[in-house]
Amino acid sequence: MGAPQIIYAVLLGFSIADSFANNGRIRAGKVSFGQTCIRCLLTLGILWWGGFFG
């Protein structure tokens, strides 16, 4: 893995951690840890399929 992949993985980790810490709270909309995890997994899957991690 190169620097772009590591940076992106860290940013996704921050997103998941923030969602976990604020699960159920209301900001502009309700924060959902589950939806954040699904969104991150789908994004990683598309990036993997496209060769970003290859």
Automatic annotation (TrEMBL):
<feature type="transmembrane region" description="Helical">
    <location>
        <begin position="36"/>
        <end position="53"/>
    </location>
</feature>
<protein>
    <submittedName>
        <fullName>Uncharacterized protein</fullName>
    </submittedName>
</protein>
<feature type="transmembrane region" description="Helical">
    <location>
        <begin position="6"/>
        <end position="24"/>
    </location>
</feature>
<keyword id="KW-0472">Membrane</keyword>
<keyword id="KW-1133">Transmembrane helix</keyword>
<keyword id="KW-0812">Transmembrane</keyword>
